[in-house]
């Protein structure tokens, strides 16, 4: 797990909310505080779908909503004449990408044990911080997936021209 302080918040927010940069993620949860506080549970509601839609993986491929489908709602809640008091997004890398990323020889954690590769994005009066995380199905002392995910995110941010300082 690493914490990265984003240097240019405006650039980062543009990449997060107005580009495809983070479209490979799912939204686990969000909270956005402006004049009110809004909470979004990214888990899809079974009651909303017909039984056929719920079972159809082309309609609903994941348990969580895709970031690309949720970012416009989040953007709408954030934009305005005042800077938000704060927000927090918890994003999970899309599972097929997890398999692809962790297939590297340096990762000795079985992919079947990885529940999610996580990005916590938090903005408050101190700035904007990204924290990485690896959610495993069981406790494992092996940290190779964590180490690889941390390196991957740094390269991901650099490729997206997002400057940061490691905390």
What does this structure look like?
This protein is an alpha+beta fold and 167 residues long. The protein has one domain (3-161). The protein is 30% helix and 31% strand. A hairpin with a 3-residue loop joins strand 2 (25-33) and strand 3 (37-41). The longest helix has 16 residues, at 144-159. The N and C termini lie close together (11 Å).
Structural class: alpha+beta
Taking the sheet with the most strands, its summary is: 8 strands, antiparallel
Spans where pLDDT lies below 50 across 5 or more residues: none
Binned, the helix content reads 25-40%
User: What value does the average pLDDT take?
Assistant: 94
Question: For the terminal residues, how far apart are their CA atoms?
Answer: 11 Å
Counted by DSSP, the helix tally is 5
Order of helices and strands: EHEEHEHEHEEHE
The total count of strands amounts to: 8
Number of domains: 1
Radius of gyration: 17 Å
Coarse morphology: globular
Question: Beta-strand percentage?
Answer: 25-35%
List its salient traits:
single chain; 8-stranded antiparallel beta sheet; 5 helices; 8 strands; alpha+beta; about 30% helix; about 170 residues
Question: Which helices and strands appear, and what pairs or packs with what?
Answer:
Elements: E1 3-6, H1 9-18, E2 25-33, E3 37-41, H2 51-55, E4 65-66, H3 67-78, E5 86-93, H4 95-101, E6 114-124, E7 127-136, H5 144-159, E8 164-166
Antiparallel strand pairs: 1-7, 1-8, 2-3, 2-4, 2-5, 5-6, 6-7
Summarize the structure.
With about 170 residues, this protein is α+β, with helices and mostly antiparallel strands.
